[in-house]
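Researcher: Go.
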Amino acid sequence: MIHSLLFDLAGTTVDCGCMAPVGVFLEVFRRHGITLDVATARGPMGTHKREHIRLVMLAVADQWEREKGRAPTSADIDALYAEAEPLQIEVIPRHVEPIPGFVEGLPALRAKGYRIGATTGYTAPMVAALAPLISARGWTPDVLFSASDVPAGRPAPYMNWRAAMALGAPAARACVVFGDTEVDMQAARNAGMWAVGVALTGNEVGLSWEELQRLSLEERTFYREKASSRLVAAGAQVVVDSVQELETALRRVESLAG
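Model: Structure:
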């Protein structure tokens, strides 16, 4: 029996297309003479933001060495992260709108007795900026944990475990994790929980809600299939287009659970 629902934030429940983080990574590396393509900037999305920078740095290490005359170091990663955090906090207020249909569907979920939590690759200072803004728009989880609240962010299971404990979940298998990135799915499976991938509104597609609505049927199908395949490969047991399909997702999980 499902007890707790654990939702990612950017790309899953707010900020369609996961726009707030990607712009910051592009800007921070640009300041140091490094040109990122969007796919590289988006690649590690969902991880702790310092880890995200570290993984991007691995991908552009040759470019960094040509620009700086030396290989990147841990100190360089720390310095970029120190630049990124205030930028991220500054950008967050422009990307806080809930994904359409999510807030509207919360009362029905709560009426069924589900406990509702949230986890995020954002750090505690970023969450401090974000939480009151989304709460004002109707999205207030029972518990919310950031990547800096635990020993390691995704794909480690710790945020999911901590949320489950705080919500009083009787078992990991009584929890369903919703997310839009590969590491969301990996963290859910590493925690022993059900993994539901959100294909169209998240990082794998990277389009705003308005841009999604302008897609042709063929384009929408292409993006859905591409994102779904990546999420399933990362561990998703169920994939939906967006959190507008929560009831459908939960029915599918219940059928898998028997």
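Model: The chain has a mean pLDDT of 96.
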